Every structure is written in structure tokens, then in C-alpha cells.
Amino acid sequence: MDIKSLMEKFKNREISVEENTKNVLEKIKKNEFNHYITISEDAIERAKELDKKLEDNQQLGKLFGICVTLKDNISTKGLKTTCGSKMLENFEPVYNATVVENLLKEDAIIVAKTNMDEFAMGSSSETSYFGAVNNPLDTKRIPGGSSSGSAVSVAANDVLISLGTDTGGSVRQPASYCNIVGYYPTYSLISRYGVVSMANTLDQVALFANNVEDIIKTSQVVSSCDPKDMTSIKNEYEFSIENYDFNDKKIAVIKNLDIYDVEDVVKEDYYRAIEELKNFGCIIEEIEFKYVKYANAIYNVVMSSEASSNLSRFDGIRYGYQAENYDSIEDLFIKTRSEGFGEEVQRRIALGTMYLSASDGQKVYKQGLKLRKLLKDELRNLFNDFDLILTPTTTDLPYEIGSRNDDALSVYDSGIFNVIVNLATLCAISVPVRRGLSGSVQFIANAFDDNNLLNAARSFERSIR
Fold it and tell me: What would the pLDDT profile of 343-378 be if each residue is shown by its tens digit?
């Protein structure tokens, strides 16, 4: 099932929006993979309103009747937005994020908020205050993160579309691990207003679906100019479904995967994708990167520094969790943050605070910014000669839940090809190569070349099915 087919069923009266929404909610309430935190009690009423709209022959929105789930760091009026944390366990926003407003304007139905790594810090779902999420392909394994619940809600066929956020691969990595499609748009194409920030210069709302065409249709809705977000685009971006001809297109591929510790299965699927592209008539050229080997270190510095700054607002005074027993304001801050934040969040705040320390002139942070600029220039300059870059989405397959709890740095292991996209503010999409637990490939395009990127991924996807 896809968006077009389901909307046709609504229009032909084969199934009502209310009936479909009830079916979706029945699946969601089972929550068999622990992938939901809050379920909407108003979804059925909204479905009834949409059925009435159809009955009255009113103009229908682009996502009419389509049930959507949201990562639990996207503000939703009337639904808790917990960020997977004790700190915001009972927090309920008084307004919708801009992306939510955009969805509602086009007649989508928000049915649930999905489980996630706490404050989007993690890549496995294991840091969530509400417990780890299971991978529907193998429940012993992680589904990836931090947008774990959103990925699983699509992979488990609960919904056709889910929104997550991606700061360093938090949509593309779980998309790969769950064998679905995950799209990271160019920074600024989707408003971040109402989305709880982790790292402002890296965060972006991103999309999950089972096929690229549904990604394009949803992108047409959620992308918008927004005066409430100073970083959002100034002119509307045009997404459209088009034929993409790979013939004579130049695609850069990684020359030596061995230096990135890529698992054999992932390698095999990557090379399989390359052969398929050669059959399309693509010009494939191997490249070597100069600065990519530093990407995880750069990401760690930039992300931790920005996260430390962003999370300073959670102090037990304005909203969220507050420690019960304290002796002074300083003691309140310390106890609230110690009790309200989990270990991974505390670790990143501590690192960021250290990187931003004035005592050493912020040497590490400033060096990180310099290297980020060099990495960004290296990647962007490639598009003077190439149409696309192709990488494995992740360097490994999903590991078993709990198997890496003693290795704090393992959270960065699989995402080196993801974080380069965020650091360089490019766009990328992860597409499965075959069904089941397997390696996916990531197509990367230059900033604002999203429409070509998506249509290239759509052509590739259709060829391998």
C-alpha cells in the first residue's frame, strides 16, 4: 500500500477514513516493539471530520486521511512531547510545530508519538527513558536511532509515513537497520520551529516511508518557508515526481571501504548496488577522501557543544521535571539535571561544556569548526565533477540490544557516512538494496538538489524490486 492507492480507496468509498484510522490505532495500541510513547485520543474524531469533508465534496488535501506518526521531539498540541526523557515525561506543548501544521493543513491524521533515544542522543534507542525499541526484523536487535520508534512504525506497516529528526544519521541509520527508506533533506527545507533542538546547525526534520514516491509526496507538504524559523528557506522548494535518466550520470563511490571497517554483508550489498548502476549506463568513479576520517571526531565536538548549550534550559524552574528535595537554587539545578537526564545525555553535556570552556580558549571547539569547513569544502567541490555520491548507509548491520552497553563510543561507530552529510549541509537518502537484514545504500547530492536526489533514488528503487 502507498499514499496514492490508499487515497484512491477513500475517494472510491472502498474504505472510510474512520475505518482505516481505527485499524491503524488497533495495531499501534499493541505497541509490540515498544515503539510508541503516546497515542492520540482525537484521531478518530479527526477521521470522522475528514469523511464528512469527502461526503460534502470539498477539496481534499494532498495527504487526505493518511495516518502519520511523529518522533516525540516534535511539538504537538494536545499530545505529550517527552523527548524520550524523564525530564519531559509529562510535558504537553501548547502549540504545534510548523511541520505538524503543514500536515494538518493537507488533511493528514497524527495518530501517535514515537519512542526515541533521550533528547535524540543515541543511535540504538537504548537511551530512552521508556525502554529500548525492538527491531521488527529481529526483535533481539536494535532498530537504530535516535528516530527508532518512527522507523519501526513504518517498518512494522503501522503507517505509511513517519517523521523523525536527523542530526548525524538519526533517520538514515534506522531506515537502513529496518530495511525502509529514510530521507535527510537539505538543511532549511523543512522548518525546525517547534522541534526540540539538540544541535542547531545539524538538526533537520527527516522522513521515513516504504518507498521513495511517498517520500516525495510528503516532502511536498512538510517543506515550507517559515518566518518563525530564521534558518528556513526564503522561497518555496518544488518537489515533483520525474523520470531520472542515469545514463552518463557520474557517480562517485568509495575507493577503499576497508579503512572504514565495513562489515562484509554491507560491502557485498554496496557493490551489488554499484553493479546495478553500471547497468543503467552510469559512469562510476572511485574517490578517496582526505577529511572524512575525521568526521566522527568533528561531529562529536560540534554536536556535544551545541547540545550542551541547548539543554541548559532544562533546569527545573520553567517546565519539566523538578527535584523534590533541595537546599538551594544551585542544589535544585544539580539534582534536577542529575535525576532528570540519563547517562548518555549527561555525558554529552559534560563533553560540550568542556569543549566550550573559556579556560583553554575553546581550542578543541574552534579546531572542530575549522575541520568542519575543510570537510564541507571537500564534499561540495566533488559536485563540480559528479552528479551523486554513493556510500553504504551504515558500516554494519544492527547489533543485539545490550551488547554494547559498556562501550560509550560505539554510538558513533556505524554512522561515518551519515554525519558527513549533516556536517556539510548536503542532502541524502537511504534506500534498501534487498529485503531483510541487509546493507542499504546512501545517495548523497549537493545542497538543494533534493528533487534530483529523490527521483534518482526512486529510479534505483524501482529497478531492484
Answer: 999 999 999 999 998 888 899 999 999 999 999 999
pTM of the entire predicted model: 0.96
Query: pLDDT digits over 238-296, tens only?
Result: 999 999 999 999 999 999 898 999 999 999 999 999 999 999 999 999 999 999 999 99
Q: Is 189 left (phi over 0), alpha (psi -120 to 50) or beta?
A: alpha
Q: 86: which DSSP letter?
A: G
Active-site residue, from 40, 125, 146, 162: 146
* Catalytic status, residue 359: no
Which amino acid is it at 305? S
Which three cell numbers, joined as nine digits, stand for 83?
523527548
- Report how far residue 424's alpha carbon sits from residue 381's, in angstroms, rounded to the nearest whole number: 11
Active site residue 146: yes
Active site residue: 71, 217, 249, 376, which one?
A: 71
* Contact yes or no for 167/203 (Cβ under 8 A): yes
Chain centre distance of CA 398: 17
Element (H, E) at 418: helix 416-423
Residue 31, CA distances (Å) to 133, 209, 311 in order: 10, 19, 29
Q: Out of 16, 40, 150, 170, which one is annotated catalytic? A: 170
| Residues making up the chain, counted from first to last | 465
CB 203 within 8 A of CB 306: no
Question: Does residue 64 contact residue 50 with C-beta atoms inside 8 Å?
Answer: yes
Strand partners, 251: 284, 388
